[in-house]
Protein 1
Amino acid sequence: MPQVTVGVSLKTYFGHERARTFFTDVAQRAAAHPAVVSGDVRLFIIPTYLQIPAALDAFAGTPVLVGAQDVSQFGPGAYTGEVTAAELAEVGVAVAEIGHAERRRLFDETDTVAAAKAAAALTHGIAPVLCVGEASRVDPVDAATATVAQLAADLTGAPAGPVIVAYEPVWAIGTGRTATAAQADEAQAFIRARIGAKDAGVAERLPILYGGSVKAANAAELFAMPNVDGALVGGASIVVEEFASICRYRDHVTAGS
Ligand code: PGA
């Protein structure tokens, strides 16, 4: 597993031209970033569906992966407005966010739908980034208990395959209220332990990212935690320098030590 995985969801922050500029900038920085080149830091960028081909072009020949913010639970057919896992895989999409809190809240996405999407993604070789987390601020163990149940529901019936977990307390997304590094670590240790009770190997290899108001100011502290394998970043990534700074987390660790 890489030391740290940093995923970026651009949500719908950018129009097409701004997204292109962002991809070019990130591709240049990634090519010059020793930790990205060595695989120590793994990056994935998740733009809108319409921006995916431009992202794939910009990141061709770099180690940066391109993802989708969603995927259809259905296969090809009469499903107006959907984008299938088969098509995403065909163009080279590597990961797909599934069950993000905004989709659950605004689009009534249920665990059953998330499970169907996870199965579709895995069937086509796309790694689901399963977004799970508690709705309100509670004790880390209670939070993790609810999260583990959600995770199990979201993987019901899915074939085996590489999965990335994004532990994202709903109350922390886009609010500026981040779980402390200790809270995130405690919750994520619990998630890993519960998965490890079923399959130690899977738990060991499973990247568990923290998401929810991650920014340069808190990334180093989060990444120093043994059970935080990286971050899923939203709002902070709009400013490319802030995003680059998150990826230079080791510099901050060194500077702060
Ligand atoms: P945020 O979003 O960084 O803006 O809180 C995170 C996410 O939605 O994954």
Protein 2
Amino acid sequence: MDAAAAVSVPSDEQLAALEQLCVEFAVIAGRFIRDERPDRLGVAQTKSTDTDVVTVMDRRSEELLHRLIIEARPDDGILGEEGADVTGTSGLTWVIDPIDGTVNYLYEIPAYAVSVAVVVGDPSREGAWRPVAGAISDPSLRLVHHARHGAGAWTRPEEEGDATPPRRLTVSSEHRLGRSLLATGFGYAADVRARQAEVLTRVLPLVRDIRRIGSAALDLVRVADGSVDAYAESGINAWDLAAGWIVVEEAGGVVVGRDGGAPGKALTVAAGPALATQVAPLFTTEPA
Ligand code: IPD
């Protein structure tokens, strides 16, 4: 976290403009993947394993986000899940997941998201970056969740003209592990999954229950709005995490990694502060 802390955070005026762009871009890409989904969507490619899929819409959504970002912010960097990265000169990088919850999207399960964040530091190095603004669109519910540093976390309808007022997000106050609903997720590699299942055999008897929603970004939103008490997963990437991290923090929660360090691949835990310190050790025996 030191390297990230050394980079200065933009002024609140700049942050407000960046947050607004995050919302705009996440909503545009969210509508695109919902409304333009081809009738017979198949797997276009696999990545780390045969179960780690990419659809044509992941690629198109990332291309769309690239175009929007480059047009509005030509000096910023871009790091995206599908890999067409850009090195910037401004010190700010857009970290984007064009579809988080791709397997849900493929199966038409309505729990997928577009995650768009602006970060300071180097998001390709764990512990060397942190988000300063972000938005997660939930196209199935036609909602967008967003935050910027120091200004709270909010949910609003994706439709500009909708008069429903924005709702401020607050993490759950549950601090008893045994009463906690814990969201988690699994990687795509069989050996990693076997270890994750083994960790769950120890965790499941200790908590109220477990949820596997299938989108890390939406898991983090659920922590922020208190509809789950905590989230823990190992193996997630910067693009799964970046926007949700600032949303949870601005909702009063903490997002930590192994041994209380920065969140990332080794471990990401999000919860209210008292619960996070109980959940993290349960997952720290799991190899990265
Ligand atoms: C995945 C989802 C899932 C999580 C995986 C991620 P993707 O992202 O967020 O919930 O458990 O670790 O890789 O592949 O759908 O963008």
